[in-house]
Design a protein that fits this description.
- The protein is an alpha+beta fold and 218 residues long.
- It folds into 3 domains: 56 residues, no CATH class; 35 residues; 100 residues, Immunoglobulin-like.
- It is 29% helix and 22% strand.
- It is built from 3 helices and 13 strands, in the order βαββααββββββββββ.
- The protein has a 4-stranded mixed β-sheet with strand order 9-6-4-13, with no helix packed on it. Strands 8-7-11-12 form a 4-stranded antiparallel β-sheet, with no helix packed on it.
- The longest helix has 46 residues.
Length: 218
């Protein structure tokens, strides 16, 4: 004989207004065994019933859990992006501060220079009425900012020792020069030379090394 299985009244009281799985559930039929026991054709699984009831009876909590997880992921991305932006801004500020410091504190240090090493010429035979060019040479200067290849040299010439006018250079070399040849000068006169280094910022050192022009061919 077929019998109709009905939900216990206690289950209905725990979930008021909620039907089995959220909709009318076809009641499984039961039948009597030979021994007279009632047997369900499709007994519901307890775990499945609990899960179904939880999802139906507490839909708001379920949605809140999903939304919370999504919000947490979005928050994590926002925090990571914000930190990266802050690091980039800090680096940019540091570079800008360094540039401003260099502009605010210009180079005021003159080059380091040992001065003129030699001033020579060669005038064979009688020198009266002749002209000669003097070859000046020196070791390159160094500077805290300007490379040696960018340093120029101011040359001061005089006809007596100590007579150089340091307010106005007689000659100026190209950048990075380590020698200079003067225009032809009267061979029967004495000449004295001082060479000073100047960096790109215009700082000129003030060495006092003076060399007399020497005729190597006498």
């Amino acid at each position: 004989m077929e019998a109709v299985w009905a939900r216990p009244a206690a289950a209905r009281r725990r979930l008021p207004g909620v039907s089995w799985w959220g909709k009318p559930h076809p009641a499984p039929a039961a039948r009597l065994s030979a021994a007279g026991h009632r047997t369900l054709r499709n007994p519901p699984a307890d775990d499945a019933v609990k899960v179904g009831i939880s999802a139906i009876a507490q839909p708001a909590r379920y949605r809140e859990t999903v939304v919370d997880r999504r919000w947490s992921r979005q928050l994590g991305r926002w925090v990571t992006g914000t930190l990266a932006l802050l690091v980039l801004l800090a680096l940019t500020a540091a570079v800008a501060a360094g540039a401003l410091a260099r502009v605010a504190s210009p180079d005021r240090t003159p080059p380091t220079f040992a001065g003129l090493k030699s001033a020579t010429t060669c005038i064979p035979g009688p020198i009266r009425g002749q002209t000669a060019s003097y070859h000046l040479s020196w070791d390159p200067a160094t500077d805290n900012v300007t490379p040696s290849t960018k340093i120029v040299y101011d040359i001061y010439q005089a006809t007596k020792s100590g007579g150089e006018d340091f307010a106005s250079a007689t000659y100026t070399t190209g950048r990075g020069a380590t020698s200079f040849t003067t225009p032809p000068l009267p061979a029967d006169e004495l000449f004295y030379f001082v060479v000073r280094a100047r960096d790109r910022a215009g700082n000129r050192e003030a060495n006092q090394v003076e060399r007399e022009g020497v005729n190597l061919c006498v």
